[in-house]
Amino acid sequence: MNGKRTKQSRVVKTHLVLPNDTNNHASLFGGILMRNMDEVASISARRHCRTEVVTASTDSVDFLHPILQTDSVCLEAFVSWTGNTSMEVFVKVIAEDLNTEERKIAATAFLTFVAMDKDGKPVQVPGIIPETEEEKKLFETGADRATVRKDRRKKSRELAEFMTTKKPWE
């Protein structure tokens, strides 16, 4: 099989949850987590293709457990599936209570990136070689997610054609 090992695109980044990053429930703001997910996912995509990338979509973000001020938050990202010029990046978020050592999957996400050349045109990306059971499972189910993405994008374009660009007060 031609391609790069999944682990070659792996990115791991850990943060403390600070008071300025929390909402009125003393849990991490979802928007801050999403920014950090996009950051690690884009690094992962660039490691895989070694070109510029653009975020094509955030396919899903599932918040499974709140991330509290007593937690550290570890984001792990890797390319889980590739198309011709696009890459699906899986992001797993692990919250760890620093007082009790309890760890839990707090969120998961799939983001899609397109590899670009110096002129801003899409370029082909290498395939991936999954090795762990987790990587293999995500790879095996990647084509189905790509089909859903393609259909959703088509529907989004159709809806956008229907929408107005007028100012709300006009």
Structural account:
The protein has one domain: Thiol Ester Dehydrase, Chain A, CATH 3.10.129.10. Helices cover 29% and strands 35% of the residues. The chain is built from three helices and seven strands; from the N terminus they run E-E-H-E-E-E-E-E-H-H. The strands form two sheets. A five-stranded antiparallel sheet has the order 2-4-5-6-3. The protein has a two-stranded parallel ribbon with strand order 1-7. The termini are far apart.
State the gist of this model.
The protein is α+β, with helices and mostly antiparallel strands. The protein is 29% helix and 35% strand. The strands form 2 sheets. The chain has a 5-stranded antiparallel sheet. The chain has a two-stranded parallel sheet with strand order 1-7.
Essential attributes:
single chain, 170 residues, Thiol Ester Dehydrase, Chain A, five-stranded antiparallel sheet
Query: How would the global form be characterised?
Result: globular
Taken together, the total number of domains comes to 1
The CATH class is Alpha Beta
CATH topology: Thiol Ester Dehydrase, Chain A
* Major sheet attributes: 5 strands, antiparallel
Gyration radius from CA atoms, angstroms: 18 Å
Kindly state the mean pLDDT as a whole number?
Answer: 95
**How much helicity do the residues have?**
25-40%
Distance between the termini: 57 Å
- Count of individual helical segments: 3
Order of helices and strands: EEHEEEEEHH
Uncertain spans: none
Strand order of the largest sheet: 2-4-5-6-3
Question: CATH architecture, please?
Answer: Roll
